[in-house]
Structure formats: C-alpha cells, structure tokens
UniProtKB/TrEMBL annotation:
Species this protein is from: Roseovarius gahaiensis
Protein's UniProt name: DUF1489 domain-containing protein
Domain of life assignment: Bacteria
Stored InterPro entries: UCP032025 (IPR008320)
Pfam families to which the protein is assigned, alphabetical: DUF1489
Amino acid sequence: MAKLHLIKLSVGSDSIESLITWQSSNRAKGADGLPRHITRMWPKRAAELLDGGSIYWVVQGLVQCRQRLLRFDEVTGSDGIRRCAFVLDPEIIRTTTAQKRPFQGWRYLKPGDAPADLPSSRQSEDSLPPDLSAALADIGVI
C-alpha cells in the first residue's frame, strides 16, 4: 500500500472523459508519450509519493478518479522558470466519489483518506452528471 498520495483539482475538466481527452493530447504528454501535469512546486515527500502513490483528481467538486504517479521531472518553461512535471500512468482508475471543496494547488492525501477504487466491472461506466454524483455522495450512496 502506498505511503502517500496527492489530491488536485482538474481545472477545466467537466468529466472524467474530458480529463482523458486532455491527457490524450500532445500538449499534455512529455517526449516519452506519458501524460504529465506541470506545477510550480516540487513535492518535499517525493519518495513516499513514488512508493505506489497516486494523484486523485477532483472533477466538478468531486474526487472521481486517480492515476498512479510514475516520477517527477524537472522542466524549464519558456519563461526560464523551473517547474515540476508529475509524470502519470496513462491509466485513469475511477474511484468512489467524494465531495471536495475547492483549494489551490495540490495537497498530500493519506491512504486512509483516499476514496476506494470502483470494481473493475464498473471502470468503463460513463460518469454520472456532477449534480447527481454530488447528491448521491452527500447521502452516502456512492
């Protein structure tokens, strides 16, 4: 079991499908073809995160999926500023939904606080509308 995870808002995504579409684009991939998310801050607890950790994505106010963290690469932007690229496993794993208020940047997430993965038989399901998912999560159904 992982020692630590990250949680991050998927800004601009209105569904898991739109996150998948974005990560399939050339702009979201590194030279190795793997999806990556570039951020200003480098995780101080990188070793714990890379010991089986994932990034949990908050889409439309709900944690809905995760991706395994493969490594962290240093990248320098056209502005000359060094940043951290979270290099991700291309497989997006759907999770049970959990409401999450907006926050800036990313946060560490303890494994005990992470939503459970959906069973493999439900991984190919379309996402529920955000309002319905939020209502069901609020009453503890999902």
